[in-house]
Each structure stands twice: as structure tokens, then as C-alpha cells.
Design brief:
single chain; 167 residues; mainly beta; eight-stranded antiparallel β-barrel; 13% helix
């Protein structure tokens, strides 16, 4: 995780330098700011990609823990990503649920949050989370016509799924 975030910081620094040289301030305008809600998730399993609408089933099948196999369903129930109207800060909240379908374990609801700074140059957006924040968002994504696409690390399996957010 440290390597991923160190790389993120370097990307953000490089983007800021490029913005300074190109005449693009890299700052957010009112047209990008606001709250974006997760609309779809692209999930890759065994090399096969599938898209799911929200709420999205990320995994449904057997999972082994402590030498015992469970029949689980793992879902991303909702997610929001807010970019400040004036400035370069963001906040993220994702709501996940893990259910053991045979009733052997209680339902596990997980809320993951992240906040930090972002920089937008053209349609490319880079994120650097605050040190006291969960790590949920990958380093970069795109923002085009009110649609924000970023990769999210889920809090249970630490898989990387691409989520499309709409304003």
C-alpha cells in the first residue's frame, strides 16, 4: 500500500509541474465540483470482465476462511465521491455488505471512507489520500461530461474494481 501511495504522490507532483508549465492551473472549477454517485461497477474475475449496475454483486460463491468454506455474497451497496466546488479536496464513502448465505455467520456491513486532495488536468484526475484516511481509491481516473471513473479497492478482498460515478 505504501508503494501505491508513494507512486500516487509522485504522479500528483508531476501533474502539478506539468500544469504549471502548460498554463493550465490544474484547479477545479464549479463544473467539476459536486457529489457523484456510483452507477456501475466493472468486475474482473478469472480474466473475464462483467459490468453490474448499483447495488452491485462483486462476488457470489464459495470462500474459504480458517479452513472452512462458506457460501458468500459480497456487494457494493452504494458509493459517493464528492469533489469540492472551490478547491482540490475530495471525500469518498463506500458501503459494502458480506453475507454468508447459509446463515453460518452474521451479515458483515463495512463502510470505508477516504478523503484527501485531487488534481484535475484536462480529463485526467489524480488522488492522494490523507494519512488518516482509509485507502479505497486508486491513484488516478478520468472525469468526462459529468462521469467520473476510478478504480476502488474493496475492504474485504482488496480487489480492484472500476466504478463509474455519475453526478
Amino acid at each position: 500500500m505504501f508503494l501505491r501511495r508513494s507512486r500516487s504522490a509522485l504522479l500528483l507532483l508531476a501533474a502539478a509541474v506539468i500544469a504549471g508549465c502548460s498554463g493550465d492551473s490544474g484547479t477545479n472549477s464549479k463544473t467539476e465540483g459536486g457529489t457523484y454517485a456510483a452507477a456501475t461497477v466493472t468486475i474482473v474475475e478469472n480474466g473475464v470482465s462483467r459490468q453490474a449496475s448499483m447495488p452491485a454483486v462483486l462476488y457470489d460463491g464459495p470462500a474459504t476462511a480458517g479452513g472452512q468454506t462458506y457460501n458468500v455474497r459480497y456487494e457494493l451497496l452504494s458509493a459517493t465521491l464528492t469533489l469540492t466546488e472551490q478547491g482540490t479536496t475530495y471525500s469518498f464513502t463506500g458501503n459494502y455488505r458480506l453475507t454468508e448465505k447459509d446463515g453460518k455467520l452474521p451479515v458483515d456491513n463495512e463502510v470505508t471512507t477516504e478523503h484527501g486532495n485531487y488534481i484535475l488536468i484536462g480529463q485526467d484526475i489524480s488522488f492522494v489520500n490523507a494519512l488518516d484516511s482509509d485507502i479505497a481509491i486508486d491513484a488516478s481516473g478520468t472525469l468526462r461530461n459529468g462521469t467520473l471513473s476510478v478504480a476502488l479497492y474493496d475492504p474485504i478482498f482488496d480487489e480492484l474494481n472500476t466504478v463509474t460515478f455519475k453526478r
